[in-house]
Structures are given as C-alpha cells and as structure tokens.
Amino acid sequence: TVSGTSITYGTPVQVGGNALRGYTGGIIWDASVNAGAIFIGDQWNAESKYFGFTVSGTTISVRSSGSGYIQDSGVKNCLRAASNGKGGFAIVYISNGTLCTKVGVIASGGDLSLGGNSNTYSGYWTGDYQYGKSICDIAYAPDKGTATSSTYGICANHGSYGQYVRALLLTDASGTSHTLNSATQLVTIDNSQGASLTYNTEFNCFYMIYRVSSSTYSRTWTAQSNGTSVQDLSSMEAVPGYTSSYGCIVDYNSVTKKAYI
C-alpha cells in the first residue's frame, strides 16, 4: 500500500514453485474484475505458465491450479501481455522465430480462459533469451475497436539479428477470438536491442521505444482508417547517449501525461 511517499510491502509470494525457470513474461491488473494475471515464459521447460491472482490489502493470492492456471506448450523467446481493463487481455510472443498472439478473458477470483493463435508470421528474431530481451511488446488502444471488441498494437524485432522493427494491429479481440493483421516495417536498427510499446491516450497513438547506435529513440504510430493497417507518424531521439544492451520498457501515465522509460 502507498501513503504519500511511504510504501508498505506485504509478504512475497513465490510463483510457480522451484520447477519454474522463466526468463521473460508480463503482468496485468484488471480493476473491473479486481484480479490480475502473471504470464511467464519458461524457456527451460519449453512452455509458458499463466497464473491468475487476487490482492487483499498487502496479501497476494496466486492461483496454481484449476481455472486460475493455464499451461501453454511451446518455447517463448519473448512474452508480453496487456489488459483492456474490462475483462479481456492479449498476449504476444515469439516462438522459435514465429510471431504469435492469443487473447483471453480474466474473471473475478483470477479465473482465466485463453483462445488459440490467429495468423502467425515467421522471420522474427529469437533474441538472447537468458536476458529476457524485449524483442516484442503489446499495448491496448482504448479508443480503437468497437463496443464489443478490442484493438491492441504490437511491435516486434524481425530479421536474423532483430535489425528491423515491425508494427502490427491485433483487432476483433472478443472473448477468446481475435485477428492478427499483417506487419508494417517502421525502422531499421543497427543492433539487437528490442522495442517496447505503450499507448498515449492524450494523442491517441502508440508510443514505441527502441535503440539506434548510442541513443534511445521513440516512434509514434496509429491505425489507418481501415482499422487494421499501421500508419507511421514520427520519430525522435528520446534519451540521447543512453541505451541498454538487453532491452527497454516504456509505460504511459494518463494522469501525468508522460511516458516512463
């Protein structure tokens, strides 16, 4: 819990037991159902595991069986997740060079349901999994989609060493079904730092962070009028002279109207 500048922590909870060896993953919280989910790519065991959880005060209760737990087969070189804040979520991952997506539903108590892949696309970078590089990411676009379906944006590194950053739109997300549309290449980078993505609700556009040479850059993009194709907007140097060899995370705060890298 937070009071002013003071933070009170509860007791840490181990997720997945000692057999879980994860290098990549994501976490969501959905206030509409008062529950969240943890998504972990278990590279060692060539699978991923998804855990629903609830919070009461400073106590976290993680589901590890039944309808609050999903075991998903297949290697996940990078795995990221996003919530639409109204009971739905989506995940993106790269599995041995193939870009894949799934969508699902989270209910109160942390119950989870998950659908299958839509279109999949090959040629994506597998990254350096032991470092959990951010070679793909996903963000929800609250002003896109319809009253009954959601739209998410995706960015991912394509090419033999991740030198191309591509963007895609995941549309028609409803329940456990969706459509992953074809990619648009936005930028060529000269090394293997991946991209990270968030959504700017002030200007209604996706905000992507990536590395070129010795600086960290941003790029904005949105959906074309057809709702399924990517429209590139602009780029700028975001953090001059600073980079990471492993990856980056960016998140947008709609209250402060700032992106945090």
Short overview:
With 261 residues, this protein is an all-beta fold.
Sum up the structure in keywords:
261 residues; mainly beta; five-stranded antiparallel sheet; globular
What topology does this entry show?
Layout: E1 2-3, E2 6-7, E3 24-30, E4 35-42, E5 47-56, E6 59-62, E7 69-73, E8 78-83, E9 88-95, E10 98-106, E11 112-114, E12 136-140, E13 150-158, E14 164-174, E15 177-180, E16 184-188, E17 196-200, E18 205-212, E19 215-223, E20 230-239, E21 251-253, E22 258-260
Antiparallel strand pairs: 1-2, 3-4, 4-5, 5-6, 5-7, 8-9, 9-10, 10-11, 12-13, 13-14, 14-15, 14-16, 17-18, 18-19, 19-20, 21-22
Folded structure, characterized:
With 261 residues, this protein is mainly beta. 0% of the residues lie in helices and 52% in strands. The protein has no helices and 22 strands. Strand 21 and strand 22 form a beta hairpin. The radius of gyration is 18 Å and the shape is globular. It starts with a strand and ends with a strand. The model has no long low-confidence stretch (mean pLDDT 92).
The helix/strand class is mainly beta
Low-confidence stretches: none
- Helix proportion range: under 10%
SS element count, helices: 0
Radius of gyration: 18 Å
Largest sheet: 5 strands, antiparallel
Q: How does the overall form come out from the CA principal axes?
A: globular
Query: What integer is the average pLDDT?
Result: 92
Calculate the terminal CA-CA distance, rounded to whole Å. Answer: 23 Å
Please provide the ordered H/E string of secondary-structure elements: EEEEEEEEEEEEEEEEEEEEEE
Number of strands: 22
Strand content: over 45%
